[in-house]
Amino acid sequence: MPYTKTEVDIHEDYTVEAVDPAWLAQGVKSPKHLMLDPDNCILCRACEDVCPWNCIYMMSPGIVTGAAEHAVGDEVDNATAVFVVDDNACTRCSVCVDRCPTDTLYYARLPEGSKGGQRTMAEVPASQAEGV
Amino acid sequence: MAKEDTPLDQAVFDSALEAELAKGTDRRVAEGRARSAAVRAYRAANPEEAAKHEAAGAKPAAAAAAGGGGTTPAAAAAPAAAAPAAAAPAGAPVAVAAAAVTTPTREAPLPTGNVPTPKKGAEDKHRLLALVPPEGIQRVEREQGDRVNVWPHLLIEEFVAMFILLAGLTLFSTFINAPLRELANPNLTPNPSKAPWYFLGLQELLRYFHPMVAGITIPTFILVGLAAIPYVDRNPSNKPGDRKIAITMFTILFMFGGVLTIIGSFFRGPGYNWVWPWAQGVFFEL
Ligand code: SF4
Ligand code: SF4
């Protein structure tokens, strides 16, 4: 048996709030964080499968029960899937980035003032899910 | 998978599942919520067994780390820390118990044996990576936004550009005369003798370096460097904030070229010596 992956208890009652940069800085020291461009994702779940630390998940939007902003809440309601990463455990090993068949995952700095970039993605990671 | 191994309170599971389904919740979500409620109920009722479960789960990781030859203190310490964490919530109020029980157990892959543990005091939060909209990928017929085929999309554009350029050049050369100079006179060489303006930066370099360096090494370095950029800089982001080094380097290089060209064009006079264009005049022609 090469290694065991233990299923991590994903919460079922997340609420979405804005990312607190101080909280993010507590994770593995890296100025860049994992990003996902939902336009290209084919929902193959390969990233979930390869992550040695079990810290990236594709989940049903049902795990989110609330959002600080209305617009985000509506987006959650319409979404097909929700991707969540545990930044505290992610070691930036890039296994998932390499594995993704559609180059959907990449690293970038989080935009500091939320409404930053041109990508849809640039705004989305300005939100995070908080387990209650 | 630990999912099947986790002991849960079957009664709580059934009742929670029924309640969720009655509310009209999606079955997958309902099962998840019911399972989490049941596991939490079971662990709250059997704190010692929950602790044992945590310890048992952690043991193989420690054994594996030792067996792999890497007796990493961090890996050994992790299970010890996990057990009290699981046992602690026994008498605590429900909310706290739920939070502590959800602390993930992570086992290390063999090669390192180092279990990543969250920083002390960091809240148990997960970052929302992305919401995949329904009009995302599944609609296979959807055109991929930023990727097109070379043929026909790119090549047609290139052919159109080529014909426009050709037509423009033809018109230009029909109406505008660009005569050659008179025959060269070997007894009367022009002074200063300057290259076309776009080579004056290079000619300026010749003032400072050996011709081999100025004429071959530096231009080769620049051309190869430019060609290598896409292989060195693999950053897919197109936001300026993500490529500060690249932009800075290019700006510096560009300014060097610009300054050298301007000096060569306007500040060099007879004998290719320094002149001030406002004092001795401009020795420059297109
Ligand atoms: S970078 Fe490595 S640790 Fe982080 S989510 Fe990807 S596979 Fe997991
Ligand atoms: S590996 Fe890439 S395409 Fe597959 S689910 Fe993960 S992000 Fe999406």
Describe the structure.
The complex is a heterodimer of chains A (132) and B (286). With 132 residues, chain A is an alpha+beta fold. Helix content of chain A is 20%, strand content 23%. Chain A is built from 5 helices and 7 strands, in the order E-H-E-H-E-E-H-E-H-E-H-E. Chain A has a 3-stranded mixed sheet with strand order 4-1-7, with helices on one face. A two-stranded antiparallel ribbon of chain A has the order 2-6. In chain A, strands 3-5 form a two-stranded antiparallel sheet. In chain B, helix 4 runs antiparallel to helix 5 (73-87) and helix 8 (200-208) crosses helix 9 (211-232). The interface between A and B is large, with 72 and 55 residues. Bound molecules: iron/sulfur cluster (SF4) (2 copies). One iron/sulfur cluster binds at residues 34, 50-51, 53, 55-56, 85, 90-96 of chain A. Residues 36, 41-47, 58, 99-102, 104-105 of chain A line the site of one iron/sulfur cluster.
In short:
Chain A is α+β, with helices and mostly antiparallel strands. Chain A is 20% helix and 23% strand. Chain A has helices at 21-24, 46-50, 70-78, 95-99, 120-123; strands at residues 14-18, 33-36, 56-59, 64-67, 81-85, 105-108, 127-130.
* Structural Rg of chain B: 37 Å
Low-confidence stretches of chain A: 1-7, 112-132
Contiguous runs where pLDDT drops below 50 for at least 5 residues of chain B: 53-104, 108-113
SSE ordering of chain B:
HHHHHHEHHHHH
What is the global morphology of chain A? globular
Strand fraction of chain B: under 5%
Give the beta-strand count of chain B: 1
